[in-house]
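On clarity, I found the account of how folds are encoded harder to follow than it need be. For illustration, here is how one protein appears when written out as sequence plus structure tokens:

:::
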Amino acid sequence: MPAGTPREVAEILGAQRTAFRDATVDYLLRRLPRLRRVAPLRQRHRAEALAERAVGLVARSPQGMLRGEDAADLERAGRANRRLGVPLRVYPVLAQALKAGLRAAFEAAGEPYTAAARDAEALAEAACASLARGAYGADLAGVPAATAGEVVAVEHPTRTITALTVDTGAPVPRLAGQHLPATTPLAGGEWAPLSPAGAPDESGQLTFFLHRAKHPVYRRLADARVGDQILFGEPEGGLSAPAGPAPATIVALDEGYAAARSLVFELLGREEPPETHLVVETRYPGEHVELARLEALAAAASWLTVTAVSREEADPWWLAARQTGGHVRRGAAAVASLVDSPAAADRTVRLVGPAALAEPAARDLRAAGVRDLEVEAWGDPA
């Protein structure tokens, strides 16, 4: 039966992903061959991500109408694409490329090209217009596409964690809890989300805690030496610092610690911060690299308490067991105590960490009745 609804169009695109992707990319690169220079090692990955995003967009968009939240996401993507060197003139060509991909998918499926497919063409036009609008708006506002910084200090508190301090020469406009896409010349076009560990200030110096074992791009960034250059894109994501009279809990899972630390330091600058409990979860006890400093801070700030937990009971031999300077609850999970607390629903909760940990934790918190919950989760570098 011919595709008569957006969902049926999406099903054809999903079944013919390869034809859709290849036709779209082939059209784009034939019209704009210079795009081959934009992160060439990541072209296939980005083309696959584009195909997946297009399938989802068509499935949830009625008759070629772009939903408001999708338009906003695309505008943010247009801003982010500037750091890759993607020029504005790409987007009208991309719209035509997506149409070529649609027709190729229908041809591969042996399906007639229906009115619903032409609605999907209108959706492609609207989506590319949103991408261009985001990029153009940032250009018009004078927002730099990327910011370069020089590594000024490197520390290795454990075998798997590296602390980098980078000087950008000028303040980076951002909010506490946001992350910056970061790359180096040796990263092969991959960008990793890095969260500055301090509150925004005027110094232009940013400190990051990198977990080397997480992904190859983190290892390349962690191998940086003093004097090396790191390139940052525009700040993304972020959590609002807790405000108001309700007690707050900030939960940091693994590399989410830096963003949580940034929120705590943001609260330090307020006259009346709320009663705040910082819970830091790591895989191994020895990964609590700043526990002594955090506990000293909590001792000086009556509104702050700190709990450190680790999912594993002990550090493996390759991590060089170390003294954390404080008490770590071993074999525990950060969210478990919150879920079991009868007062959980009344607390303001901020949860930050990799998606594999943060998303299940967020589901548990919502199931426990937590209403004021903000979550910052990220996937693998792209």
